[in-house]
């Protein structure tokens, strides 16, 4: 593929095993620039692993990970740090620093990397907090805010340096309907206003239709489907159907692999305590 | 291997030691000095050192009391009660001061450093730093390690001072000994470098050890409640055992 390609993120034939378990095998994935792409799949399918590959926290056993023209998995630690300054990541629980106020959390990457005077940093932080609706909570500590608010502060921190790429890891997990609506609107708003490429790792089928331009479904260690949300709604692929319709059994089995129930019940073997 | 996968098998302790050494060397290689770092280091010295003062002052005072009580009782049988202050000062400066301070430090500050770093990993704060292109070894580990190295010798000084005061209270105010005899006995026998200086050198070595083990066990703690609990226990046990062992080795070389 050439540099003119519009795809900003590309995973080529990526395989990865962790702790002796194969997580991804021959995964090919393309995420277009400037759009909101949802990476979906059942729990444990390797969605967060994909995010960690993009940020360079994990290196693939085989294959390559590209961000624009940069091969992420071949970067040295210093080069990787340079790359990460252009990536904003919202981790699952926000991962705010509990000993810092909301203001200082958002100011941290600016103080570390921007070299701007404190007066200017203050203005940028207040504007970022205004974007997420929490300027009034600038002096509060994460423990004084709700889970949803913590995630919004973390979102303000992730976009403090105006990154080209925003990664959201399960941004809707455990949110009440109001916080969820706020998060959806913010992700869209950030994508439109800043023109960033947004990747949302989620398994929330209902919300994805409202948010994403493109959906990629990962299951069984590889990409099983990708396309616009309504295309996937019409898909006849059994795994996509099970996932979209929320069926308890199907290609992803309800039962964890186990010996035959009758044999186990009638067995005299006593389980070790 | 992820940082919290512990080595298994009969060679595990040796491999763990090797990993801890590699961790220390990596931390040293990542060290960076800046105003931001200086501020954070001072904050950590406050948390690890200043906040340990209550236990150090109380512990030191009562160790001084009981040590003088015991030596006074024993030496009186040989008619050498005047030497009690000398015995107190020598045993404190050479051995008890650095060793007991480090053990108290490991229980009070070492565990808190381990639990803090362990919980930062469990709540993805270390990941968040890494993703913001901020080196967690430099920002989280380095200030806490330096805080241990500075706090332990400083606390040892305070521990020694409080223990001498405890000894003074017992010998002079409770047993009615002459205060001049108490101080002059100590002054004439204690050598600045051989007794006091060697003790402070030990305190620096123990500070490195206590700080190193606290950050290492925190860094390698499994990101679960059980993992953090285990790591804090390991910090106390490993620090206690290794300080006592290192104390013997250092004493053998210094005498």
SSE topology sketch:
The complex is a heterodimer of chains A (273) and B (255).
Chain A: E1 7-18, E2 21-32, E3 36-40, H1 47-54, E4 62-67, E5 70-71, H2 77-84, E6 87-90, H3 102-113, H4 118-131, H5 147-158, E7 165-169, H6 177-194, E8 197-201, H7 205-211, E9 214-219, E10 222-227, H8 229-233, H9 238-245, H10 261-266
Parallel strand pairs in A: 3-8, 3-9, 6-7, 7-8
Antiparallel strand pairs in A: 1-2, 1-4, 4-5, 9-10
Chain B: H1 12-29, H2 35-48, H3 53-77, H4 84-122, H5 125-131, H6 136-174, H7 179-189, H8 192-219, H9 225-254
Helix pairs in contact in B: 2-6, 3-4, 3-6, 4-6, 4-7, 4-8, 4-9, 6-8, 8-9
How would you describe this structure to a colleague?
The complex is a heterodimer of chains A (273) and B (255). Chain A is 36% helix and 23% strand. Chain A contains ten helices and ten strands. Chain A has helices at 47-54, 77-84, 102-113, 118-131, 147-158, 177-194, 205-211, 229-233, 238-245, 261-266, and strands at residues 7-18, 21-32, 36-40, 62-67, 70-71, 87-90, 165-169, 197-201, 214-219, 222-227. In chain A, the strands form two sheets. Chain A has a six-stranded mixed β-sheet, sandwiched between helices. The longest helix of chain B has 39 residues, at 84-122. Chain B has helices at 12-29, 35-48, 53-77, 84-122, 125-131, 136-174, 179-189, 192-219, 225-254. Chain B starts with 11 loop residues before the first helix and ends with a helix. Chain B has one domain. Chain B is 83% helix and 0% strand. The mean pLDDT of chain B is 93. Classes of the chains: A alpha/beta (273), B mainly alpha (255). The A-B interface holds A 19, 55, 57, 81-82, 84-85, 87, 89, 91-93, 95-98, 108-109, 111-113, 154, 157 and B 2, 5, 36, 123-125, 127-128, 130-135.
The value of Rg of chain A in angstroms is 21 Å
Helix content of chain A: 25-40%
What oligomeric state do these chains adopt?
heterodimer
pLDDT averaged residue by residue of chain B: 93
- Specify the biggest β-sheet of chain A: 6 strands, mixed
Which geometry of chain B do the CA atoms define?
A: elongated
The number of helical elements of chain A comes to 10
Query: What's the CATH topology label of the domain at 7-86 and 163-266 in chain A?
Result: Rossmann fold
Question: From the alpha-carbon coordinates, what is the Rg of chain B to the nearest angstrom?
Answer: 21 Å
Order of helices and strands of chain B: HHHHHHHHH
Strand content of chain B: under 5%
Cα-to-Cα separation, first versus last residue of chain B = 43 Å
Stretches of chain A where pLDDT is under 50 for at least 5 consecutive residues are 1-6
Number of helical segments of chain B? 9
CATH architecture of the domain at 7-86 and 163-266 in chain A: 3-Layer(aba) Sandwich
Shape of chain A: globular
Low-confidence stretches of chain B: none
Largest sheet of chain B: none
Number of DSSP strand runs of chain A: 10
